[in-house]
Amino acid sequence: MSSQTAKKVIIIGATSGIGKEMALQYVQKGYIAGITGRRTKLLDEMKERFPAQIFTSCFDVRTDNNIEYLKTLINEMNGVDIFIYNAGYGEPGITLNPEIEKKVYEINVKGFVDLTAYMFNYFMQQNHGHIAATSSIASVKGLSSAPAYSASKAFMSNYMEGLYMKVRRLKANIYITDIQPGFVKTKTVSNPRFWAAPPKKAAAQIIAAIEAKKWRVYITKRWRLIAWLMKYVPSWIYHKIA
What we know:
Strand content: 15-25%
Oligomer: single chain
Number of strands: 7
Structural class: alpha/beta
Low-confidence stretches: none
Shape: globular
Radius of gyration: 18 Å
Number of helices: 8
């Protein structure tokens, strides 16, 4: 597949974990991939491995000119077919740290809305496209250890559902996928967690869901059961354990 006919994907937040693994797997499928993050070195390492298929843009999604960075990346790639917002932040704690709460909001809500809303209108004008976003199983209920995180993920998930209904009403040729992972094994998580998926497996399931044009997917699939339990467990029980 030539660079002129290859499909193109942009992944916001692709320097590590699921985002990096998705980029690698998309490249292996023959895609042109635009990847973003805040660490230039990690972006450059990916570019060096796949110079003909990887485009990079180093920026923080919290910046006021985040859309300008995105526009430049799209221009360098000469278009885009799939947009994945995978940037996210959360830090649990016993006390409530206002700086952490603000950072969670800026990345998981403000940056997400800025870039996703721009891409929605871009795809409307283009008359095709696919938007996916990594929310979380934490979107189902509030968390005492990370109230801003669970609230921000609920915002993301509800926003994506709203976009899904909007494209159906507009009869637009745009697809929406809300990604809700459970635990994923990363270098920053040292304590063992049940049902924690390796990034490679999580990325493969996400890509498969996008290819199948699913509007919501749980990663891994067994987390659908946990989402159901969290949703329907009586509040008096949930408030004692969460």
